[in-house]
Amino acid sequence: MNVIVGPFLTFIIGINVVTSSKVLELSDKFIDISGEGVWFVKFYAPWCAHCRRIEPVWAHVAQALYSSPIKVAKVDCTRFPAVATHFKVRAYPTIMFIKGEFWHQYSGERLKDDMVNYAKRMVQPAVQRVSHADSLGYLKETHNIFFGYVGKQQGPLWEMFSNHAEKYQAHSWFYALSHEIAHELNPPNDSSVFVYKEEETFYFKANPEVLEDRETLNNSLNKWVNSERFGFFPKITRSNINDLLATEKYIVIAVVLENKLNEITQTERDFKDMIESIIRSNKQELHSHFQFGWMGNPELANTIAMSELTVPHLIVLNSTTSHHHIPDDDPVLMTPEAVSLFLDQIHKQVAPTYGGNNWMVHVYRGFFETRTTLINMWHGNPVLTALVFGLPLGFLSLICYSICCADILDADEDEEITETHEKKD
Ligand SMILES: *[C@@H]1O[C@H](CO)[C@@H](O)[C@H](O)[C@H]1NC(C)=O
Ligand SMILES: *[C@@H]1O[C@H](CO)[C@@H](O)[C@H](O)[C@H]1NC(C)=O
Ligand SMILES: *[C@@H]1O[C@H](CO)[C@@H](O)[C@H](O)[C@H]1NC(C)=O
């Protein structure tokens, strides 16, 4: 198929097809033809290290989407800056889903499966209707998490579900099912919304008084969808931490240190597994108040805690106040019971609280981050650091010196003038 499509595309739109990776290389002409078909495009610059890092991943994405209608491509923005300007690209690499007038920038992890799932979702309608009786089993097998609507496809709840499906399409799957098809999930008789998450089903429960008020119902559905769209124990990074904080739950984080090959030590692995086992064995009680997860890089946790945490560590964030909680005991020695007790104290608001959002904390956090950045810079490249800070300092001292000297000269003159005045007097 590649043999036929390749030369054909090259001929029509000036694309050089790199047959081995199946990633299409685009040029300026892309601006004119981007409205045709569905595109998944990586905007890159050859000098950018992050771009080079995802190069092999991007080739795998292209391979995985090869039989789909989604065309996986890349644009070298240094050679074709007009394309970057047209699509308002601000950073490299930018990954964008383009379907006619609709553009959407991918913001998730740059992992093959995440990107492939994202593209497959974006190409479908936001809510997909399930009509085949066996489909539920298939969905359960193929998706870790999906949202479902059960009942007649009309009325306020249906409209809100459809709206939120569009809003969160980039992050999750949304399906509409009949009562018969959803039967084994024991749906209530009325229309209802559920999330199926790692083999467990949770129904959206609105307060009866809220049901009357559309806006409140809509807001609570919005909050619920946003807080349920994460797995029970996701990896927490800079790209999803803000979304996690929007869940308004306590965020319970196991902090470990991954090396370049994404490996961690046995002690850290045991600790991480122990924390994960707590949520897995108490999903129904814990998950409405606590979102668990783990971090492979203590830097982000240090910024939150404003100190150098040893790894492994446990940190719990209050997502509404930005306060955090750290256990008094050495986390490595904690048992699941001790951790559960600690969480219970946090929930009852009797555990010691640190940080927060007041100005003192902001100033200190700023200071801590600057210090960390400088230290990292010094470790990374002492010569460059010395130059960056040394040169301006050198200039500054020159300027100071000349200002001071000028002052002294001026002062002398002044004095002389007064002296002459005195003499005249
Ligand atoms: C739901 O419907 C079934 C069958 O129509 C009925 O037996 C059951 O009582 C209903 N449940 C509720 C809570 O209305
Ligand atoms: C519900 O909220 C979403 C955004 O959260 C909004 O797009 C939608 O228009 C709202 N729908 C209704 C029916 O109020
Ligand atoms: C965070 O702290 C506030 C104030 O102490 C409290 O009202 C809230 O329940 C706490 N929990 C979360 C998850 O926000």
UniProtKB/TrEMBL annotation:
The protein's superkingdom reads Eukaryota
Q: Where in the cell is it found?
A: Endoplasmic reticulum membrane
One Gene Ontology cellular component annotation?
A: endoplasmic reticulum membrane
Main localisation: endoplasmic reticulum
Transmembrane: present as a keyword of the record?
Answer: yes
Query: Pfam families annotated for this entry?
Result: Thioredoxin (PF00085), Thioredoxin_6 (PF13848)
Q: Which SUPFAM superfamilies match?
A: Thioredoxin-like
Under the heading InterPro entries, the entry gives: PDI_TMX3, Thioredoxin-like_sf, Thioredoxin_CS, Thioredoxin_domain
Give the matching Gene3D superfamilies. Answer: Glutaredoxin
* Keyword annotations of the record: Membrane, Signal, Transmembrane, Transmembrane helix
Where is the Thioredoxin domain positioned along the sequence?
17-124
Instruction: Tell me what topology the record assigns in the membrane.
Output: Single-pass membrane protein
Signal peptide stretch: 1-20
- Function summary: Probable disulfide isomerase, which participates in the folding of proteins containing disulfide bonds. May act as a dithiol oxidase. Acts as a regulator of endoplasmic reticulum-mitochondria contact sites via its ability to regulate redox signals.
| Protein name as it appears in the record | Protein disulfide-isomerase TMX3
Q: Which species is listed as the source?
A: Bicyclus anynana (Squinting bush brown butterfly)
